[in-house]
Amino acid sequence: MRMNTIITIGRQFGSGGHEIGQKLADHYGIKCYDKELLSRAAKESGYCEEMLKNHDERPTNSFLYNLVMDTYTFGYNSSSFVDMPISHKVFMAQFDAIKKIADEEPCVIVGRCADYALQEYKNCLHIFIHADEASKIKRIKERYDIQDDNKAREMMVKKDKSRQSYYNYYSTKKWGRADSYDLSINSSILGVDGTVEMICKYVEAFEKNR
User: Fold this and answer.
1) In contact, 153 and 133? CB cutoff 8 Å
2) Reading across the β-sheet that carries 31-33, which strands appear in turn?
3) Is 145 contained in some domain?
4) Of 3, 7, 79, 159, which residue is 20 to 30 A from 141 by alpha carbon distance?
């Protein structure tokens, strides 16, 4: 059976969300977009990829938030776009790239408010991956070669705070809250492979009942 579902993955830092997304993509023979999304957005928007990386999943304090929302609701014109802060232009570039990717074929998209960007798509399954603190700290220490628990914890808190602020700012939903997603999974209980297996079963049921 060919998988026709687009899977979006929100994730706590250190929960294994990227690895889970990649294994899901490999299982179904589809593409996984994480950092790759930045290259796609840069190519299609004409922005420097380094600029997109510098603003990737980072919150903004700009008072022009409503301008961005009006842009998506009513369409943007040249004057409003010129006045828009860089952080919003980057968000728009990613937002547009996510929709174009979803229009092409089934895929896995990690982070970057993809579930919000694709909320009108009926063939989307939105997942959130979380884990207990000990498991996340262990993974962060191994992946980033950090020896100290406190440094790993500090990195974890900072990253999650940034992701939460970014998501809550640009989305109408709340980052990490169960009712913002179709399925929320504790990867520290199931492990990466067990989490992938559970999501695959959920995808099968989702496609059968859709």
Assistant:
1) yes
2) 31-33, 107-110, 6-11, 124-130, 183-186
3) yes
4) 7
pLDDT > 90: percent of the chain:
68
- Residue 45: both structure tokens together: 């928007």
**Structural contact between residues 46 and 103, judged by C-beta atoms closer than 8 angstroms:** no
Q: Is residue 20 part of a domain?
A: yes
Q: Is residue 66 part of a domain?
A: yes
CATH number for the domain that contains residue 158: 3.40.50.300
Question: Is pTM, for the whole model, over 0.70?
Answer: yes
Looking at the structure of the chain, the number of domains it has is: 1
Q: DSSP string spanning 15-44? A: S-HHHHHHHHHHHHT-EEESTHHHHHHHHH
Residue 191 lies in a domain: yes
CB 140 within 8 A of CB 146: yes
Q: What is the pLDDT of residues 130-149, one digit of tens each?
A: 999 999 999 999 999 999 99
Q: Of 208, 205, 190, 203, nearest to 28 (Cα)?
A: 203
Query: What range defines the domain where residue 145 resides?
Result: 6-209
Which residues make Cβ contacts (< 8 Å) with residue 168, sequence separation at least 6?
174, 175
- Quickly state the pLDDT bin for 119 (edges 50, 70, 90): very high
